[in-house]
Amino acid sequence: MVHFGGRSSVCGSNLWRITPLTFCSRSFLGEETHSERQLWYLFHQFGASTRALALYGAHPDRYEEQLRRYFDEINPDDLPYIFRNPASSQNSHYLITIYPQEARRSSFERKFASRRVFDMVWENHLSHRVDLMKEFYNPLAAFLPTGTPAGWVFKRRMHQLLSVEQTLRSFRMLPHRAGVNLVFDGYAASKARNNSTDFQLTHSEEHHLVEQAEPQMDLYYRFRSSSFPMFDSLRLIHPPGEPSPILLVFWIIRNKREHDVKLRGLRNINQLNIPSDTRRYLVVVTPENIHPCITVPLEYFGGTVDVRSEETDRGEGEGKNKDQDEETDEDQDEEMDEDQDDATGGIQWALFRVFHCPVDMRRLFNP
């Protein structure tokens, strides 16, 4: 018996009910049986309904074939309406899963059935239709239960925008010490004066990057999450008149939660085959109303950076003006730009500067 707790299930075509999903992998009536691995794959990859698990548990390829046929035949302009009104299509269960609202269990919210289903819809219909992206994003972003699918739309759209010619305006994020961590505060970055930096990007086709690869200048690379956890993409640029190239590592975030940088992702970035004098910049991309809070373990910077703790700021910081505080942070950050020995592994680390790139949401879905 396989139990997928907390998910909604589809009964028939258009009858929806809220129930933990428990499914018997071996039928009591003598029909075809399924292994737990088969059922979990079909449910996890496609958000398949209880009925679909019973029919296709042993043949997920057949279910995927039906799913592709549905998306190939559907009119793209009908997709937003089907998403808002699942009863309008007898095949809406391929696209949508319905959840109860967290605050009001008798009311329902709609989500893409799975990340795989969203990817199929994106590649087939949304990637070249900015108007449809907006029609999906707005209702998804309006409610917390659908925050993750809204993030999928936001991230995919940003991949498109970061690969075109443009001037990317970002704001330097300076660290303060909190216990054993360094914390980069996006709110403080937005309030600091004369803190903006412009990066000139050229047009590029999208490429994928694997570990220990050699990125080419001015190309846009997307990461595979298994190789570079947390981070999303990068570009290697060499601005005219600058003494050395810059590696821009993009981290695309849509929500307001605090985020901890995964050291494995940083290590894999550090192992890329790039010029030794390359400056490394982590660019955190968010909607304009979100000020990210990024936490990095202090030992990643060699344990030698003398940044102020929050307790010191509250005591000794009294009586200092803003310009003095900013100058002190700047001096400390210049020390961090130099390579330091990693205190935990004896590795030579190339350190990051951290920037915040707020996105004007009014222009996100402009053609």
List the helices and strands and how they pair.
Elements: E1 2-4, E2 8-11, E3 15-18, E4 21-23, H1 36-46, H2 50-56, H3 60-73, H4 79-84, E5 96-100, E6 108-112, H5 115-126, H6 130-141, H7 147-162, E7 166-173, E8 175-178, E9 181-185, H8 186-191, E10 196-201, E11 206-209, E12 220-223, E13 233-237, E14 246-252, E15 259-260, H9 263-270, E16 279-287, E17 293-297, H10 310-315, H11 322-336, E18 340-341, E19 348-349, E20 352-359
Parallel strand pairs: 11-12, 14-16, 15-17, 16-20
Antiparallel strand pairs: 1-4, 2-3, 5-6, 7-10, 7-20, 8-9, 9-17, 12-13, 13-14, 18-19
Helix pairs in contact: 6-7
What descriptors fit this protein?
disordered N terminus; 11 helices; 2 domains; 31% helix; 367 residues; eight-stranded mixed beta sheet; four-stranded mixed beta sheet; alpha+beta
Q: Gist?
A:
This protein is α+β, with helices and mostly antiparallel strands. It contains eleven helices and 20 strands. It has an eight-stranded mixed beta sheet.
